[in-house]
């Protein structure tokens, strides 16, 4: 009997809370994420073209310095505290894989720097990145093995 009353109270509270909870601005948030994510991709494309035309990279190799530059920019903006402010406004738009991952690692390093470089910065950066690196490497190995065994690679 007591459990039933408690459940009714919880449902009544949830109903009242839902009535007063602000509604998410889904369309506006989606538009901001689309525009900011698109601008990050445009920046990446511009950097790639710069590396091809000004530094003589071949198109198939220009992606490496482009990704490194985007990672550097993301880490620099994280360190300056700008990335988080833009991220609050843009939402998922800055979660574009390279920049978002670099931001999360740099944030982790900054947060734990008081604990020292090895145990604080290094240890906590790799807690976050370790799973990505391990499973990325493992999946690349498995896919390479499948390609080799099926004769898809020459």
UniProtKB/TrEMBL annotation:
Keywords: Membrane, Transmembrane, Transmembrane helix
A Pfam family per the record: SpoVAC_SpoVAEB
TM annotation in the entry: 33-54, 66-83, 90-110, 130-153
Record-linked InterPro entries: Spore_V_AC (IPR014203), SpoVA (IPR005562)
Coiled coil: none
UniProt protein name: Stage V sporulation protein AC
Gene: spoVAC
């Amino acid at each position: 009997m007591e459990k039933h009353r408690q459940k009714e109270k919880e449902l009544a509270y949830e109903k009242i809370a839902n009535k007063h909870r602000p509604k998410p601005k889904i369309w506006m948030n989606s538009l901001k994420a689309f525009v900011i994510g698109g601008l990050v991709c445009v920046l990446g494309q511009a950097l790639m073209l710069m590396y091809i035309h000004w530094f003589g990279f071949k198109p198939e190799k220009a992606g490496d310095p482009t990704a490194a530059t985007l990672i550097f920019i993301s880490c620099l903006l994280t360190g300056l505290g700008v990335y988080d402010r833009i991220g609050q406004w843009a939402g998922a738009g800055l979660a574009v894989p390279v920049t978002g991952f670099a931001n999360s690692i740099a944030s982790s390093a900054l947060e734990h720097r008081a604990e020292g470089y090895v145990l604080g910065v290094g240890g906590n950066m790799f807690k976050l990145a370790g799973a990505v690196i391990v499973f990325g490497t493992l999946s690349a190995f498995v896919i390479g093995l499948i390609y080799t065994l099926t004769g898809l690679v020459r």
